[in-house]
């Protein structure tokens, strides 16, 4: 009995960890429209890695994004200039942080 108890306990722990719900992959979590609190900038991230930036008084810019760990890299073109920006990012509920700038998920 003493030898079987650790085996049963190990099996139970494996079963419990195997049933844990997986968090959403990053493209699923970031997908949607995010707007800054001033209403000046809006990011639209699609699950397929494409994006669009709407900047008040500057127009809109289409591009792509990629996620590596806690960093997001965005690439887009402004007139004739290619832009590549990398930010530390995190999502907390309905708030996206790019470095320290907060964007709320638009419903």
Describe this structure in words.
Helices cover 19% and strands 51% of the residues. The chain is of the alpha+beta class. It has an 8-stranded antiparallel beta barrel with strand order 1-2-3-4-5-6-7-8. Residues 5-14 and 18-24 have low confidence and may be disordered.
Characteristics of this structure?
8 strands, Lipocalin, eight-stranded antiparallel barrel, alpha+beta, 107 residues, 2 helices, globular
SSE blueprint and pairings:
Layout: H1 4-18, H2 26-30, E1 32-36, E2 41-45, E3 50-55, E4 59-68, E5 71-78, E6 81-92, E7 95-98, E8 101-105
Antiparallel strand pairs: 1-2, 1-8, 2-3, 3-4, 4-5, 5-6, 6-7, 7-8
Compose a concise summary of this entry.
This protein is an alpha+beta fold and about 110 residues long. Helix content is about 20%, strand content about 50%. It is globular.
